[in-house]
Design goal:
alpha+beta; single chain; 312 residues; 3-stranded antiparallel beta sheet; 7 strands; two-stranded antiparallel sheet; 12% strand
Length: 312
């Protein structure tokens, strides 16, 4: 990893490389595109409309405060985690914890932990894909864990380790980040602060399914980075706790005053959307089946051509 300086208020940033879905090396984090917008976004003129993102001063001390709160949350959290562990052991095969590489502050890669909510080897057939509505890979217990966000509880240990905050933008996978940075101008600004277990975008919007859903979440992530405060965190924390109690989402957001109507800034639509990797599990299977049919048809044609040549 190397360290550079962001043109936004001289914020120190890191840059590094990971391999994308095609095995090619690619930079992640703010340092990836801070000085080469025309390469990342294809149209540098879009950046003239982008408002500089300066993190709230509130985040200068948050990581230590969140570590302390995470330590306190371990006391009520450990019995719940023990119960979830037993239920996972009794209801499905495979590991209890699911570990995955994610992109943290300034592009730093770390290992995120969560309770497994899908079948083992869920991406064996498709590679990295987004979760789809009624995704067949999600187990029955996994649906409950996801609805209540109990699958995220092990991330308390990520907070204690300093990789995450309790509240912030959700960390994305490097396999997706390298493409999303090209597709959505300003996407790397999410890395200005550490990612969170829960956040303003997560409690307002459903999981990502396409680029537009990513833009909507990015809009709220950047709002949080710019306007983060203790009051806003209390609202998000209370809303998350209410969701853990399985209360209706809309009721929780209205009661705490955290509900947002998202308007995506136009500059976020100036990127390269041509990459075919943006797909859900269902789309991935369909694409795979189509590729297999095309392969078989090609082999059949080649075999017929060979037989015809041999007869001639």
């Amino acid at each position: 990893m190397s360290t550079a300086t962001s043109p936004i208020k001289n914020i120190p940033i890191s840059s590094g490389t990971v391999k994308d879905l095609n095995g090619e090396k690619y930079s992640v984090g703010l340092g990836a595109h801070a000085f080469r917008p025309e390469k990342a976004y294809g149209n540098a003129s879009n950046l003239t409309e982008m408002e500089p993102i300066v993190p709230s001063a509130y985040f200068t001390w948050r990581i230590w405060f969140d570590r302390f709160v995470a330590l306190l949350l371990l006391f009520p959290g450990l019995p719940i985690m023990a119960m979830v562990t037993i239920l996972l052991f009794l209801t499905s095969d495979g590991p209890i914890l699911y570990k995955q590489r994610r992109v943290g502050k300034n592009g730093k890669i770390f290992t995120l932990m969560k309770f497994r909510s899908m079948i083992p080897d869920a991406e064996k057939k498709t590679g990295p894909v987004w979760t789809s509505v009624n995704d067949p890979r999600i187990t029955k217990l996994g649906k409950l864990l996801r609805a209540s966000h109990l699958d995220e509880l092990p991330q308390i240990f990520n907070v204690l380790n300093g990789d995450m905050l309790l509240i912030g933008p959700r960390p994305e996978r490097p396999e997706f980040t390298c493409h999303l940075s090209k597709a959505i101008p300003g996407y790397d600004n999410r890395s200005l602060i550490p990612p969170g277990v829960t956040g303003l975008a997560q409690i307002n919007l459903p999981p990502d399914t396409d680029l537009e859903s990513v833009r909507r979440k990015l809009t709220l992530d950047l709002e949080y980075i710019k306007t983060g405060s203790f009051k806003l965190d209390v609202q998000i924390f209370v809303t998350t706790f209410m969701r853990l109690c399985l209360l209706p989402s809309d009721f929780c957001k209205k009661w705490t005053g955290i509900q947002r109507n998202v308007v995506v800034p136009e500059y976020m639509r100036g990127g390269d959307e041509s990459n075919p990797m943006f797909k859900t599990y269902t789309d991935g299977i369909a694409m795979q089946e189509k590729a297999e049919r095309e392969r078989l048809e090609k082999e059949s044609l080649e075999q017929k051509q060979t037989e015809k040549e041999q007869q001639g």
